[in-house]
From TrEMBL:
Entry-linked InterPro entries: Cro/C1-type_HTH, Lambda_DNA-bd_dom_sf
Lineage, opening ranks: Bacteria, Pseudomonadati, Pseudomonadota, Alphaproteobacteria, Hyphomicrobiales
Domain HTH cro/C1-type residues, every copy: 12-65
GO molecular function ontology, one term from the record: DNA binding
Signal peptide coordinates: none
Annotated source species: Ensifer canadensis
Pfam families according to UniProt: HTH_26 (PF13443)
This protein's name: HTH cro/C1-type domain-containing protein
Length: 76
């Protein structure tokens, strides 16, 4: 999936959450990001997420954000 905007990143993260069967509760425990923030990802409401939140969520889901943006393989 080509990444062209923050919305594309959040859409990709939502897809990864589903594919990996990772619940918002589990990600909250792994990242320290409040559980309700993951609901924003599932709703595609990327405008309310911080860059830090997106970065730590990528790390927890083992998504290489730089590679994802550059168009390469996104998994670590």
């Amino acid at each position: 999936m080509p990444i062209e905007s923050p919305a594309d990143i959040v859409s990709h993260l939502a897809q990864q959450m589903v594919e990996k069967g990772t619940s918002p509760r589990k990600l909250a425990l792994l990242t320290g990001v409040a559980e309700n923030r993951f609901e924003l990802i599932q709703m595609g409401d990327w405008k309310n997420l911080t860059i830090r939140e997106i970065a730590v969520i990528c790390e927890a889901l083992e998504v290489d954000l730089c590679r994802l943006i550059a168009g390469g393989s996104e998994t670590l």
